[in-house]
Amino acid sequence: MSEMIRVTLPDGSAREVVRGTTAAEIAADIGPGLAKAALAAKIDGELRDIMRPLEEDTNLALVTSRDEADALELVRHDYAHVLAEAVQNLFPGTQITFGPSTGDGFYYDFAPTAEHGPFRDDELPLIEEEMRKIIAADLPLTREVWERDKLIAKWQADGETFKAEWAAELPEGEELTVYRSGEGWMDMCRGPHLASTGKLDPAAFKLTRVSGAYWRGDQKNAQLSRIYGTGWLNKKQLAEHLVRLEEAAKRDHRKIGREMDLFHLQEEAHGSVFWHPKGYRIYRELEAYMRRAIDGSGYQEVKTPQVMDAKQWEQSGHWGKYRENMFVIPDEVPNIEDEGPLVSDDAEWMALKPMNCPAHVLIFRQGMKSYRDLPLRMAEMGCCHRNEPHGALHGIMRVRQFTQDDGHIFCREDQIVEEVRSFCELLDRVYKQLGFEKYAVKLALRPDMRFGTEEMWDKAEAELREAVERAGMANDDYGWEELPGEGAFYAPKLEFHLTDAIGRTWQCGTIQSDRVMPERLDASYIGEDGERHRPVMLHRAILGTYERFIGILIEHFAGRFPTWLAPVQAVVATIVSDADDYAKDAVAQLAAAGIRAEIDVRNEKINYKVREHSLAKVPYLLVVGNREAEEGTVAIRTLGQDGQRIMPLAEAIAMLKGEATPPDLRAG
């Protein structure tokens, strides 16, 4: 075997180096500036430790802080390891489990000693200080490969039962690696890591909170303490993130939902929303808007059953791929006697639908379809249930019962690109009318576990790509990107990621090109040649789910909805009781004009009323007193603006009527 290997750099230049040379040594040979800046290496596209020896001819790219996505992934992973080491330094006997990076930081799950009990938020400053000591020590992070039996024995000897269990269950033949911090502390990890703890910025992280978690996410397993943190490349990035967190806390949909009396959640219905009248008004307005959008785009709305036989889910493929997220119920009368099991062993099983698509295929199959009937666009405001873990539920953003703005387009092969292009334009119009000017379009490509042939996937991916190009969205203005391995098991998909008012992104819309489900469920149409053909099924949604999208709207607008969506669009408030009758007449006229108005004739000072209705995010407050009653005017205060305007009541109603008109119904 040759002692020399060939390393090709991104600019096309190549170097002959001794086998076993590290990427760090190559960086130092190129120049001292690069040696200092280099954080890791990409070996043939795979992120690796910069100190890991090179063993064969390779393409090498050095990763610096300018490669922000890779750099953040590295430092957050390292912060998690430093957190775990700090906790074990401070609290001997604590067991470690897992600690991944996240979208804006990291976390680590611990099993504290019985004497200590769960960790507390007030312990975070102490842990932060210990982390800074570890960073200041600039301890080398060294990769080691261990034999399975020796590593399991090591974890057991150290009392690390969770690590021992995990090591024992990793696939045979998989290389087991650990990383040491200095000469002592170690964790089992695939890596990669930075060269040393000193590569981290001690001023660029913050521990944020403590919560409960379960080993492997299963509530039947041991309860753990999860410590969250946020980590960045430098202090400036951290400061900017903390400002965003502060703003996000003010906009939290759960907080605003309580303040505006929109909805509530409670344990008696885990993961299901109790919509209050004002919250349901927003829901209804949004639903009506979406109905007009789909009606105008040639969709036919349907309604399908909540419960279907398990055999149907087996045939569609969901039973094997998705059963752990489905609510299953027995198809028999439960035992009503005091003795014996509630359900017999002979019960047939049914399931609450987690999605609408199989039922839509069954509607398509009713009656013979011709090529002239296609495309057939089918829509449903479909209520679905998914068995999400309790710990994963989050307000109305992640729930168990939800309603999708679902749709499926059954079309011929030659219609796919045009249908997807048309959908992209519909989605663009909806997002912009709902107040989202910026969003990104991403193409999620075939996953490792999938149905169908390679040729089928090649064709489906190419069609979606072409449709985006025809829609004029395959460019930087729309954040165009391709995501390898992130498609559904039956189809590639386009994802649409909204950017909200404070820069956060939310994946909402999607369209997927599917040739598998029509085959599995035997959907067909008669072609121009008189033969049976399979339609292609396009799964699509714009909002995603009403619950989550309303949560996003609440946080995007911070509760200050555009007037057409606001649950209460105007309040008429009196200064003196003598104006009560005029206020009642004004509210009646507003209601007759289709404006959602309320009256406030309480015996309170007007400044109190103004403050209260401002906190309730009412867009317009119409103040009336004796003078306004005599002159037929109102003093209008607009939410978020100083001062007031005096105008005739009729003029005010005309103005409010224009503001209260949904954007798709406005002239021009």
Structure description:
- The chain has 668 residues and is of the alpha+beta class.
- The chain is 34% helix and 25% strand.
- It is built from 20 helices and 32 strands.
- The strands form eight sheets. An eight-stranded mixed sheet has the order 15-19-20-27-24-23-21-22.
- Helix 14 links the parallel strand 21 (439-444) and strand 22 (481-483).
- Helix 3 packs across helix 4 (124-136).
- The mean pLDDT is 92.
Précis, in short:
The chain has 668 residues and is of the alpha+beta class. It has an eight-stranded mixed beta sheet. Strands 2-1-5-3-4 form a five-stranded mixed beta sheet. Strand 9 (176-181) and strand 10 form a beta hairpin.
Spell out the blueprint of helices and strands.
Blueprint: E1 4-8, E2 14-18, H1 23-30, H2 32-37, E3 40-43, E4 46-48, E5 58-63, H3 68-90, E6 95-96, E7 105-111, H4 124-136, E8 141-146, H5 148-157, H6 161-169, E9 176-181, E10 186-188, E11 205-214, E12 223-231, H7 235-251, H8 253-259, E13 263-264, E14 274-275, H9 277-295, E15 299-301, E16 307-309, H10 310-316, H11 318-322, E17 328-330, E18 349-352, H12 357-364, E19 376-385, E20 401-411, H13 416-433, E21 439-444, H14 454-470, E22 481-483, E23 493-499, E24 505-514, H15 516-520, E25 525-526, E26 532-533, E27 536-545, H16 546-557, E28 570-574, H17 580-592, E29 597-600, H18 606-615, E30 620-624, H19 626-631, E31 633-638, E32 645-648, H20 649-660
Parallel strand pairs: 1-5, 15-19, 21-22, 28-29, 28-30
Antiparallel strand pairs: 1-2, 3-4, 3-5, 6-7, 7-12, 8-9, 9-10, 11-12, 13-14, 16-18, 17-18, 19-20, 20-27, 21-23, 23-24, 24-27, 25-26, 30-31, 31-32
Helix pairs in contact: 3-4, 5-6, 8-16, 13-14
